[in-house]
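Is this the right way to post structure tokens for a design question? Let me know if I should format differently. Anyway, here goes:
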């Protein structure tokens, strides 16, 4: 990457910036939206299943300007190249599922809490982990000055966020999103490895079949040559029934060997 940032906005990230920005404006115009759409674990289970929307809607809300600014900036910085690499559909699905995974872990660990959880941070943490695994040797500039490799920046950033973050930080949401990113990337690599193994086995079977056909064709041609030599010596009328039948079938057998490569 050259210049500042990863380049032009990718389609899904552009949509997220618009949607999150619009909802943030609505939050400030209609404050009750924040209470209604945020994820509140205790409330979620207390009113179950009436608030099933919360694990989805919470990721589009933000607490203040710097909260949305950081999340959307991180999404753009680290998500753009991933979206262009994966494609918009796959990237969008990953982002949403990372956000949902963040919500699920929060609900499991903090089921009795009535603390409001909101923000795209869980989904963004999933993006950070994916970027960390895909581009570990890329350089980011800490405070726009100090160059740091991604392989050190991402875990360092997450560790500092956990150690120095206060009670208002949704640590379980961050962890849930990060874990989803890790599991997704590792399982995806295993799937690619497994797919590669299946492909290699298929190729090997095709090669084995081709070699077998070639050997059988060579045996047929050897026998054909022997019969042709006999014809040149004693004439075709002196061939046995078995030899005549073999010659008649040889052409068909050789064609099959060629078609079954």
């Amino acid at each position: 990457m050259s210049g500042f940032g990863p380049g032009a906005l990718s389609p899904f990230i552009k949509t997220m910036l618009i949607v999150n920005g619009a909802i943030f404006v609505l939050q400030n115009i209609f404050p009750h939206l924040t209470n209604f759409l945020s994820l509140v674990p205790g409330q979620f289970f207390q009113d179950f299943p009436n608030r099933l929307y919360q694990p989805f809607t919470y990721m589009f809300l933000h607490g203040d300007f710097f909260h949305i600014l950081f999340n959307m900036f991180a999404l753009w910085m680290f998500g753009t190249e991933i979206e262009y690499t994966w494609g918009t559909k796959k990237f969008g699905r990953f982002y949403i599922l990372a956000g949902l995974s963040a919500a699920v872990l929060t609900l499991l660990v903090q089921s009795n809490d009535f603390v409001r959880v909101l923000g795209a941070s869980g989904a963004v943490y999933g993006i950070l982990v994916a970027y960390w695994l895909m581009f570990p040797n890329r350089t980011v500039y800490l405070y726009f000055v100090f160059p740091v490799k991604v392989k050190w920046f991402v875990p360092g950033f997450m560790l500092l966020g956990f150690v120095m973050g206060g009670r208002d930080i949704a640590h379980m949401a961050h962890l849930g999103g990060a874990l989803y990113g890790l599991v997704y990337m590792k399982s995806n690599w295993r799937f690619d490895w497994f797919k590669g193994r299946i492909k290699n086995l298929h190729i090997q079977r095709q090669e084995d079949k081709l070699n077998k056909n070639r050997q059988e064709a060579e045996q047929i041609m050897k026998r054909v040559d022997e019969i042709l030599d006999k014809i040149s010596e004693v004439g075709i009328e002196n061939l046995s029934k078995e030899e005549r039948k073999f010659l008649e079938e040889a052409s068909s057998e050789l064609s099959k060997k060629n078609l079954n490569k």
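Format looks fine. Someone answered above. Worth noting: The mean pLDDT is 85. The longest strand covers residues 139-142.
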